[in-house]
Amino acid sequence: MKVVFQARPDFMRNPAGDTVQMVSTGQELQKLGVEVHFSADPNLDLLPYDAVHIFNITRIKESYMFFLNAQKQQKNIVLSPIYWPPNAYLRREGASANALAAWKHMQPMRARLLSESTLLLPNSQIEMDALQQDFLKIAPYQVVPNGFPDSFIGVTPQLFREQFPNIPKEFILCAARISARKNQHWLAKISYELGLPLVLLGPVNDQKYFETVTAFSNVTHIGTLQGELLSSAYSAALAHALPSWFETPGLSSIEAGACGTVVISTDQGSPKQYFQDMALYVHPMDDASLRTALEQSSNASPLPLMHHLHKHYPWSKIAEKTLKAYRKILE
After folding, report:
1. Containing domain of residue 308, as a range?
2. pTM over 0.85
3. Is residue 122 located within the same domain as residue 255?
4. Are residues 248 and 142 part of one domain?
């Protein structure tokens, strides 16, 4: 079986959750015997491929071009929408006045992909419910969740401690690109008020925003870590906090939980389908919720969530579900 993965042209240069989902799924599918190619070419000759798998309809323009090309060449189209309505985020204080209008203007393009693709692979039933609420006609779907690297099972803090000996023994971690949607300024402010050191991992998406976040004296930004060092960082943290405006469900939250770390997650989006009652939840407009979660994190047990994630969400298992979905449409 040959499948081509298509996504925004900067998916490697400007990595985000869709990058991790694509690359991780692709690597595990290859282990299962699927030939996976990556392309950002909207005019790609699709003759060699059994299916086209398009990722992400938040940035819809490129995905729409991939879709038109696949439709023109009469190919099976699999779509991972990675969708959540951003209305509350786009209406927040300080948001661009045009952002919500621009989002609504692109909805007809999203509607066409969602109704005319062969199969949708939403990351949760909650995401699917949101799609069905926002769009009238939806193609058949199968839920295929996000996951974490199998190699993260059994990790220890030792490597991180050796590499970063000056990081305090107890600290809060947030691994995400530094941007307003991830809400690190709020996290920095509340953790500063509580006297908690905050370590940020991830690329800087917004330099001005980054400067407001790192203005708090409790904040250390390390940059982007990967592989064993990243999993060791999760393992070393007192808790991992991702208080975003919304997540589907937040890859770093899954990864941190799988590494045996207490998870503090936004309650907006689909995190509750993954973490159930085994995480601490915050509402991005409620200071008290974040303060309480940070205070409770030192006494919370990460073990129930860790065992739950190990059972259901390694990328190897996600790839098996993806392959089953491919076979369904090719039959």
Report:
1. 151-312
2. yes
3. no
4. no
93-109, pLDDT tens digit by residue? 677 778 889 999 999 99
With bands split at pLDDT 50, 70 and 90, how would you rate the model's confidence at 222?
A: very high
> C-alpha distances in angstroms, 160 versus 14, 139, 171, 315?
25, 45, 13, 23
How many residues are listed for the chain in this entry?
A: 331
Question: What is the structure's pLDDT at 93?
Answer: 66
Distance between CA atoms of 121 and 206, rounded to whole angstroms? 30
Tally the domains of the chain: 2
Chain mean position to CA 169 = 27
Same structural domain, 191 and 262: yes
CATH value at residue 112: 3.40.50.2000
Question: Average pLDDT over the chain, rounded to whole?
Answer: 96
Mean pLDDT of 46-57: 98
